[in-house]
Amino acid sequence: MSSSQAQTQFHETTLPKQDYVARIFGYAVAALSVYTGIHYGYFPESSDSIALFALLYPHLVYFASGPFRRRKAYTTRQFLIHGDALFCGIFLGLINFPIEIVVLFIIMINTSFIVVGSITAWAFCIISLISGAGAAYLLTGYIPPAPVPYEVFVATAAGVGFHLALTAHNSYRQARDLMRLKMKFQGQVERFQALSHQVSKYVAPQIWESIFSGRRQVRLETQRKKLVVFFSDIVGFSALSEQMEAESFTDLLNTYLTDMSHIALKYGGTIDKFIGDGIMIFFGDPKTKGTKRDALACVSMAIEMRNHMEVLRQRWADQGISAPLQIRMGISTGYCTVGNFGTESRMDYTIIGKEVNLASRLETEATPGEILVSQDTYTLIRDKIDCRSRGKAIVKGFRDPIPTFEVRDYRNQENIDEQKVIQEGEGFSLRLDRDQMTDTERLRVAETLEKAARRLRISDDSDNSALTDAADENSTLRKFPLSSGMD
Questions:
Q1: Which CATH class is domain 216-412?
Q2: For 182-205, what is each residue's pLDDT tens digit?
Q3: Residues 6 or more apart from 22 whose CB is under 8 A from it?
Q4: pLDDT digits (tens, 9 = 90+) for 273-320
Q5: Cα-based distances in Å from 397 to 120, 171, 215, 362, 377
Q6: Exposed/middle/buried for residue 435 (C-beta within 10 Å: 0-12, 13-18, 19+)
Q7: Where are the domains of the chain?
């Protein structure tokens, strides 16, 4: 049962019954006041019709309002409360407004108005009360009442006090029931959030967010969109899997996929699927920044993935994995069919089309560490990305040769070189990216580099001194050759 259904059931069952009981006792107070007044001669005998109406009205209105209450519970409740205010005003007018009884009934009926919980509703109830009193005054006129007998006042006050206690009790029960409902559904919401968070691990975050925000319906439907499609895999990964233990191999693969996923999400890519060590990503759905910016984001992602492999290789080398793993990547741009494919009970949000096949073929054509892009992608990125033509490639599934372009790096390399330093060599590996470091980390890295530089200079000075001594010795030998031992 949903929260809205439970609240509706609460309003349709609990509140009407509480209002029914409170209305019975409220009108019973009016009947008690009238009968007591008749008994002590304060009201005429003809007033018993008022008391009889007060005793019957709550039952009649409860059963008569049943059909309306099931359809519109809140509106029906408001209407009945305004009716109570109107009848209270008429009742006070018919008994000529004795001040003691008027005060007691104003207190009682005003409490019922406050329970409604709305300032506007309370104000309209007061208007209904005054309207009822005015109508009674116009119909019967006004005769100044005699002082209210003590017995009539006490009976009315006792009835009003009992009604107030009953109203307070009902309000307490209502608050308690609402608190129980809140706690119940709070637990269900937390459980639902936990389950939805677990389910989100099986789909791209963008798709999960669009479904749970209500922007996307889970049904079999597709549409045509211009997307940028990306494929990558690790060269030699299958051979490496045969050499490693399953646990170590699994850790390596999960580390690689985790780091690459973070990079993909950083640039706004929608991760379609993992195929072993291969990754399929697309840009342009469910959100797009325009095809040109999507293409730049995809290529920027690919460049960072390629650079990040240097970090992973160093990490794997520290773990004893010496294989120089490289990734190759292919990117194409064009119209694809994107949406839910499958059945009503099992769907997969993915893309199909020739551009998907082309991106996969370009990835296969790429050499280790290379990013190949299609002609359409190159046209979109050539003003920002430095590329060179790789000529035309004959790929499976395409009749004509496909122009290919290799992504080298960003065109404004001078600015990037000021932020990034990447250098590898025998016994040496350095990757420096200032944008990803805090001020404290920069100072710490600078001190480490200065220490390393001093050690290198000391080593170089020692080597230079040794070379200088050897050179001086050779010079001396040339000036003063040793004797051969023969005259």
A1: alpha beta
A2: 888 888 888 877 777 777 677 777
A3: 112, 163, 166, 167, 170
A4: 999 899 999 999 988 999 999 999 999 999 999 999 999 988 888 888
A5: 72, 74, 36, 12, 19
A6: exposed
A7: 3-191, 216-412
